[in-house]
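Colleagues,

For the teaching module next term, I've prepared a clean inverse folding example: a structure given as tokens, and then the sequence designed for it. I'd like students to try predicting residues themselves before seeing the answer, so please don't circulate the second half yet.
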């Protein structure tokens, strides 16, 4: 009614809509409620977080983003405001596999669908996907760390040659330099080739391969490709392969590894998750330190400083190695007095 009051009388519009004129004028003078003002401010922050993700975040990830900013609000409230503003995340759709089984000898399955790792560089998963452009397909090979979900190696080419996966592995090795890491993939001809097998032996990498035609045997890497598909490829059309290369690079290194929040990581990005793991003390190293503090060479616990009397002067050290007033000095003085008494008795 306010938008059309210059064209139609207020009384006429109120009569057609079945409301009173006095009610309309009272509504125009009514102060906005505190709840409505808070929702408006919160919606602005939601729109900012949704736009920063490239329009890919739904309510759970927007909730995690606002929580890190110190905003305590329920996820259902965020979902309600996003629905009101018609802000939605992206959804996944099925894609096409690029696995072509070769004649090479496959490696054994060392993973058995257990895609878990306590720390980085214990298990890597790898696979290949394609990126459609108006000038032809661009193929992408990636190496993903199973602990942090971070893409540590990737390579792009216009053909499905073996060098595609070797270059992705070389990038991962240059970034991490692991020791005995498991490299899990499918039985594609690129991974069963002699060139790839030799590169794994040179680097001390243990190759592992799942069964043929089973996406669950490499589910973690398939999950990343589904994310790439729904958050980038399904929302953009690339005129050239150069445009696709730049977009994929920006997605992996600029957004996915450093900023995208993963529900399996407690809504942390892969880089932040690895940084948090690095700040944690190593349980084995901590156990060794505690054992060294607890057990002395004599097998007895070391005397604590708090066992000293409170009235001990600050210039006197406490403990078994003190110089002034130490137990060793007292025993030495007693021994000298006993020796003097014995010499006097003999005299």
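(Answer key — instructors only)
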């Amino acid at each position: 009614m306010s938008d059309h009051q210059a064209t139609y009388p207020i009384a006429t519009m109120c009569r057609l809509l079945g409301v009173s004129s006095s009610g309309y004028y009272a509504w125009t003078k009514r102060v906005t409620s505190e709840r409505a003002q808070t929702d408006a401010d919160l919606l602005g922050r939601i729109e900012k977080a949704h736009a920063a993700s490239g329009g890919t975040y739904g309510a759970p990830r927007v909730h995690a983003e606002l929580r890190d900013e110190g905003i305590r609000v329920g996820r259902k409230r965020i979902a309600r405001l996003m629905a009101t503003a018609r802000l939605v995340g992206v959804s996944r759709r099925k894609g096409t596999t690029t696995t072509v089984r070769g004649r090479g000898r496959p490696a054994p399955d060392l993973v058995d669908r257990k895609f878990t790792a306590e720390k980085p560089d214990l298990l890597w998963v790898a696979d290949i996907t394609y990126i459609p452009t108006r000038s032809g397909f661009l193929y992408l090979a990636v190496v993903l760390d199973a602990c942090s979900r971070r893409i540590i190696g990737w390579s792009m080419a216009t053909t499905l040659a073996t060098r595609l996966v070797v270059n992705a592995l070389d990038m991962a090795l240059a970034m991490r330099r692991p020791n005995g890491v498991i490299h899990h993939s499918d039985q594609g001809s690129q991974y069963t080739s002699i060139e790839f097998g030799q590169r794994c032996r040179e680097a001390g990498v243990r190759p592992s391969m799942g069964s043929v035609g089973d996406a669950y045997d490499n589910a973690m890497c398939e999950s990343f490709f589904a994310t790439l598909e729904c958050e980038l490829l399904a929302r953009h059309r690339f005129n050239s392969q150069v445009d696709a290369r730049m977009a994929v690079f920006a997605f992996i290194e600029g957004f996915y590894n450093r900023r995208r929040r993963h529900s399996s990581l407690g809504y942390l990005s892969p880089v932040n998750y690895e940084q948090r793991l690095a700040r944690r003390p190593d349980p084995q190293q901590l156990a060794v330190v505690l054992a060294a503090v607890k057990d002395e060479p004599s097998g007895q616990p070391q005397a604590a400083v708090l066992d000293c009397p409170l009235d001990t002067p600050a210039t006197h050290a406490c403990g078994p190695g003190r110089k002034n007033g130490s137990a060793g000095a007292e025993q030495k003085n007693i021994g000298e007095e006993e020796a003097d008494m014995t010499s006097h008795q003999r005299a």
